[in-house]
Each structure stands twice: as structure tokens, then as C-alpha cells.
Amino acid sequence: MITREIAWRLFAGEYNSSNLELKGEAERAPTYIVSPLGALVNRVFIVGVLTDLENIGSGEEPLWRARVSDPTGTFYVSSGQYQPEATAALSKIEPPAFVAIVGKTRTYSPGEGTMYVSIRPEKVVLVDARLRDYWVLETCKATLRRIEAMTDAKEMATPTIEELLKLGYPKELADGVVRSFEHYKDLDLNKYRSMVLDALKYLLPEYQIEAEGEVAENASAPEEIEEAEAESEEEKEEKVLAIISKLDKGGKGAAWDEIVDEVAKVGMDKGALEEVTNSLLDKGMIYEPVLGKMKRI
Hints:
CATH 2.40.50.140, Arc Repressor Mutant, subunit A
């Protein structure tokens, strides 16, 4: 009897950083991707904003390629004739839309030492923002649990599955953590802690420290500088969003060249604009309906 694999919850920022693949040797043996935090992934469960959808096949044999954004990055999804249910569901969706996807991992290695990951969907359903928010919270919890396991592993002379099992971690995670520890050298766990915090701040703005009216006497204090920079970034994003809305007169998006010209009038250069739009794309607040145009979600 074939056991159904766990559908892991993990952010795009962790999934896309994976470059270790374990291929089963027996016939029909599952293939796994080992994430930097030790998720031993054959199947995933993701929820995010479907921002781009394109049929690069034909009407008779469709092959849909899609991008799904979460607060940390973008998942790449590909569905064709061998995934009839998911392919049919994708063909009926009009981006942008909140979607939930359960699917299998896929890898592509164009050369030695390079690996890209994507998802082959088994099921695709439309959802709402409430479910997306719940998925983000649950994925934060799961990510923190993996960070905790990796932290414990780093404190061991030689991490083993048995030692991690004694600490209460499930076998799949213990196995993945040991493999990750051996493969991903000098792993920076603070990067993933920050990723979780950024996801929470994006989702729950009340978690951010409010410092209005509490101006320190020392104008060069680090806390004040950081707060001023954070406010400045928020203001830039609001300006760019307003400009995109203003220029999107036909409902098909605002032309990039026009956005560049418009932001120059408010003192923002092209380099700063690219930083802001990249941030907005990662947050799922804008998308590119076609190359060279930006549209609000």
C-alpha cells in the first residue's frame, strides 16, 4: 500500500532556496526536495495570489504556467494534460485571484550545481483573503518549528535522527534536518527568522512598533533612524500604488515608462522605483498582466 505524502506548508522564500533533491531508487519511489530548514518535501500546500497565468500549449493540449505570490516570494506552477483536474481549474481563473494549491514538487537543473524548483498541481481552488491569512499564520508556525529543530541540530556535535526524535520532533522533520545540516553549510537561520517576522508584519500591521509622538532627543539614535526609514518606504509604496492606479485608465495596467516619468515628478528615480515595485510584487500588491505594465491587485 502506497502512503500518501505529507503536504508541507512552507513559504516561497524557503522553497525556492532549496537545491537538494533525493531521488528514489526503487520503481515508483517518491522524489523529495530537502529545504534549507529540513522540510522533506514531496507534496506542498500553498495559498497565495495568482498573479500571472498563461497557456503556452494549445487548445487541444493546454500547458498552463502560473505564478503564485506569498509575502516572501513567488511559487512557479506548471499544469498540463497529465493534471486534468488542476488544468481545467486553472483555465477558468481570471488573475489576480486568491488560490489554494496542493501539488507535487518539480525540479529543473540546466547545469551542474544549479537547480530550480516549481510545483505540479494536483488540485487548485479559488479561496478568499481570510483563508490566505490563515495559511500565512499556520506557515509561520510551521517555519518556526523547523527553525527550532535546526537550532537544536546545530547545538549537537553530530546531529542524528534518533537525537532529534528524543526531543519530540516527528520522523520526517528529523530526517530532513539531518540531511539539510549535511548539505546546506553555514546556514543563516536569522534569514528565515526575519522572513517569518516580515510575513507577520505584512499580514498583521498591529505587530509593528508604533512610535508616533515619541521622538527621541538624540536625532541620530538608531531606533529613530530605523523608524524614519520604515515610514519612508511605506510612503514610497503608497505613492507608487497611487500612480499605478492613476495611469491604469483602460484596466489593462500602467505602462512602465509612464510610471517612471510620473514618479520622477515626486522626486523618485528609476532605481528607487524598481526597489519599490519589487517589494510590491513580492507582497502580492501588484502584478504584471503583460510585460512592461504594472497593475494593482
